[in-house]
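Appendix B, Record 12. Input sequence as logged:
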Amino acid sequence: MKRVLKTLNGVQSSLLLWGDPFNNDVDECIICVTGNPGLVDFYSEFGQELHKNLAMPVCVIGQAGHEEISVETSETLTSDGNSFNLNGQIAHKHELISNYISKKSKLHLIGHSIGCWQIIELLDRNPELVSRVSSINLLFPTIQKMAESPNGRFLNLFIRRIYCLLLIFLKLLGILPHWINRYLIYLYLSWHSLPSHYSERIAKVIEPNVMEKVLILAFDEMDTVTNLNKDAINNIKHLTNVIYSKTDNWVPLAYIEDLKMYEPEICLIEMKVSHAFILKSSELVAEKAATFIKDKRKSNLI
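Logged structural output:
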């Protein structure tokens, strides 16, 4: 795995790479768009498993602004607030594909959560890209009525109201001695039975400047992701696999029922894992996504 920095839509961004997806001689590559929070570090096990299963270049791209890049390794950010909302995030991904991926390379797109919506909208707004796409995996897709989901209602009715207090709390937390912060993170990881090496990842996400961008995006999701973009999905249904869970509080089962109108062209697979699969089930979900990619590659050869 290699971490590289690219300026995308005015934002210095970390990308995780396996192989070299930017090589002009690459025939095909995988681009994975994270959910929110969009810290690429959480997807390292997922990307590794994809690369191991498929032996093709993989690029994981996060959400713009969801990682603080150190002064030593970064240019000064030239972006404004619009770089961090949904439209800015789509432009962020479009610049990666347009400016860094060879036009000859076939794309296998993978989105998680709001990353699925961004992929659907990206292809809908830039239809010339569809001919380059060989497969699309939508993992636990938040692509409609987000504010009406159980987690969406909680975010709107509670988190949105204490937004300023939450940021103040995180800033005060940052004043505390380093060991206290790390101990609190340790308690959180222990409570949720998560591995200790997640400590650095959690610390990055709760940086006040990062959490502000996370919440800016989350609130925009609540306001923007409403009706299912049926026309856009209809255009890509033959390329698409959806992985979902019956117990997903971001994607109620009724939302998955709405996608069944696109069967049998669209593939729907249920898995008994959580929406935030990257915390405990990266390898399992990567294996399912890789299987779909393999099947699409075979069908394209027939």
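The chain has a mean pLDDT of 93.
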